[in-house]
Amino acid sequence: MSRKPPIRHSSPPLTKNANPGRWEGKAKPDWLARAIARAGVMPQEEAQEAIQAGRVTVNGRVVKQPLSPVPSGATVRVDGAALPMAAPTRVLAFHKPAELLTSTVRQHRVGTVYEVLLPQLSSDLARFTWHAVGRLDRGTTGLLLFTNDEKLLAHVTSPETGLPKRYVATVFSDADEEKVEPLRQGLKLEDGDGPIRPAQVKLRDVHTVEVTITEGRNHQVKRMLGAVGLPVRALHREAVGGVELDVAESAFRLLTDAEVAQGLGYPPAGAPG
Ligand code: URA
């Protein structure tokens, strides 16, 4: 008599990267702590604590594992209150001062943009998890967007979207049209990072160069100007898409839905609502 192999009941390990092909062709489920943070109920760290404390149910059952996937259509309750179906997309325009690091939200906050931004948020905004949209170097000042919506983050930072980012650089040497022309043509940097897309460049004066780029590579503007003999002394971002910096240093403001739609082209036409 042949013995049947035992039926295995164990689930795959609940890590973020477990079996990445598993959701191909299906909507990928969110993991529990992130779903709660995305819904704007509380920041992710607090959500993890709430889950571990047994305050969260999924379809009526207590789940204590923050990385549990949330099946689509599931009802998640925190302290008995059901999560709103979809969190609204929110975007903050922050004026980054020099000497602050653009970190990810989970990194240590001292000396980062979060140290200055988060204490200013009203309780209405503080309940979201805020992601910096791209990054500015420590010494770079100007417009840095934050959002609670990771899809918006991907949209704004993707080179495919090609959203223009306008910078103004103060340069050490004298700039002239001949020097900046290669930036308009599209530069090939010597560091093997592939060709840089053509940029819009305007000379505001002999030491002030406006550069508009549609990608966001590491230290891109400094590397571009450095490559044409114009090392950068100071760099400031004035605009991202149609969103212009209009708040004082270290201050922020919440963008309206119309500004997000018109200025950032989000959600893109044809995206599910
Ligand atoms: N390009 C740079 O070189 N630095 C920044 O911070 C942003 C763009």
**Sheet bearing the most strands, described?**
9 strands, mixed
Bound molecules: uracil
What distance lies between the first and last C-alpha atoms, to the nearest angstrom?
58 Å
What's the architecture of the largest domain, going by CATH?
2-Layer Sandwich
Specify the structural class.
alpha+beta
* CATH fold-type name of the largest domain: Alpha-Beta Plaits
Structure notes:
The structure is a single chain. By secondary structure, the chain is of the alpha+beta class. It folds into three domains: 29-82, RNA-binding S4 domain (Structural Genomics Hypothetical 15.5 Kd Protein In mrcA-pckA Intergenic Region, Chain A); 91-160 and 242-264, Alpha-Beta Plaits (2-Layer Sandwich); 165-240, Alpha-L RNA-binding motif (Alpha-Beta Plaits). Helix content is 21%, strand content 23%. It contains eight helices and 15 strands. It has helices at residues 32-38, 44-52, 113-117, 123-126, 150-157, 177-185, 220-227, 257-264; strands at residues 30-31, 56-58, 61-62, 69-70, 76-78, 81-82, 91-96, 131-132, 141-147, 165-171, 200-205, 208-213, 232-240, 243-244, 252-254. The strands form three sheets. Strands 7, 8, 9, 10, 11, 12, 13, 14 and 15 form a nine-stranded mixed sheet that branches. Strand 5 and strand 6 form a beta hairpin. Helix 1 (32-38) packs across helix 2 (44-52). The longest helix is centred in the first third of the chain and has 9 residues, at 44-52. The radius of gyration is 23 Å and the shape is elongated. It starts with 29 loop residues before the first strand and ends in a 9-residue tail after the last helix. The site of uracil has 8 residues, from helix 7.
